Amino acid sequence: MLITELMRQEVYKVSFFQTASHCLVMVTHRYLGVVILAVFATTVTNAEITVTCGKDSVKIRWEFGADWVPNASRLFLGSCRASQLNVLPTSQGEALFNYPFSACKFKKLMRGKRIIYQNELTYRPYPQNKPAAVVHPIECVYHRPDTWVPPFLRPGSGTSEGWGGLVFHMSLLNEELSGVAQTNVIPLGSFMPIWAAVEQKSHQPLLLLMEECVAVSTPDLQAEGQVYPIITNKGCLVESVRGNSMFLPRYHSSAIVLYLQAFKFNLGKEVYIHCKLAAWDPEVFNVGKKACNYIKETEGWELLDDPSQSELCSCCASTCRTRSRRGLAWGSHSQTSVLGPLIIVDPEMSVKSLV
């Protein structure tokens, strides 16, 4: 965990050191006393960058050599020019950027319990059709608050109504988890966040679970068709064993996000994901009602909603047999939902086909 609270400000500096043929840039990130170093080549001399990440904005000070001063207006943060340019008593220059994350084409990502804002500092002394002379990544990382809820209000796709008037939803989200995805084409190895939820309506609070999920090549399950298992054994995410897929921490018990890494199945053709969604009592877990991630560091399974009860996931390596029927007074409600078509493509194969 690099960041422990949303409001905490993080500062890092970048120092540039001259060598005989080019410059080496040593990037120092400071997170709670942990220092991370990276080295890359550029053409900058005698420069320093200081980044201060605020609650919803960033402040950057970029100090550069005197030879850059005539072209200082060609310094950018994303699509934004410097808020202020100064010439220092040393004849060096200083560019100040002070912008909210809603400006300058910042990219917002969500990775597990972290919210990340990404952008680039660039120096563009050449005509617009030429690449930047210098590119430096900017990143502000925050711990996602427990009360965080995606800003989209309606699922947009994959709605089905189950027994008892419960309405289940399943949708593919965009990379930022801020709304429904605008494309169904997913590069192999990238992530496709799948959001599922149940509308509680007049019911008591519900827990939404993905009991079983498989990928197939057709909108209907066929006995003779090829099946790629994703979730089996009543909530065991087997794809987290093979790759980096995971259930993300919940923002509400009635919804769940499956952060699924695109896998090799029916590449370049239609893929449909069939999931059995179940509404359950949020206070009751058992081997038949659970959501389990495989944790590679510990080589074991962990219960998403209560790690202290992770022994319920121990059967994921074999067969999970339901022993307890205690749950909602009116019983468990489930519905099968289908998401697709999705197209998983291999970028390397696409490049090779053009050669």
Describe it.
- With 355 residues, the chain is mainly β.
- Helix content is 3%, strand content 45%.
- The protein is built from two helices and 25 strands.
- The strands form five sheets. It has a seven-stranded antiparallel β-sheet with strand order 3-2-1-4-5-9-8, with no helix packed on it. Strands 15-25-22-17-18-19 form a six-stranded mixed β-sheet.
- Residues 1-46, 152-163, 324-330 and 351-355 have low confidence and may be disordered.
SSE layout and pairings?
Blueprint lengths: L9 E9 L4 E9 L2 E9 L5 E6 L3 E8 L10 E3 L2 E2 L2 E4 L5 E8 L6 E5 L2 E10 L10 E10 L16 E2 L5 E6 L12 E3 L3 E9 L7 E10 L11 E5 L3 E2 L1 H4 L3 E2 L7 E7 L8 E11 L11 E4 L4 E4 L29 E13 L1 H8 L1
Parallel strand pairs: 15-25
Antiparallel strand pairs: 1-2, 1-4, 2-3, 4-5, 5-9, 6-7, 6-11, 8-9, 10-11, 11-12, 13-14, 14-16, 16-21, 17-18, 17-22, 18-19, 20-21, 22-25, 23-24
- Average predicted local confidence, pLDDT: 77
Shape: elongated
N-to-C SSE series? Answer: EEEEEEEEEEEEEEEEEEEHEEEEEEH
Strand content: over 45%
What is the number of helical segments per DSSP (H or I, 4+ residues)?
2
Distance from first to last alpha carbon: 43 Å
Q: Summarize the main sheet.
A: 7 strands, antiparallel
Radius of gyration: 25 Å
Protein structure class: mainly beta
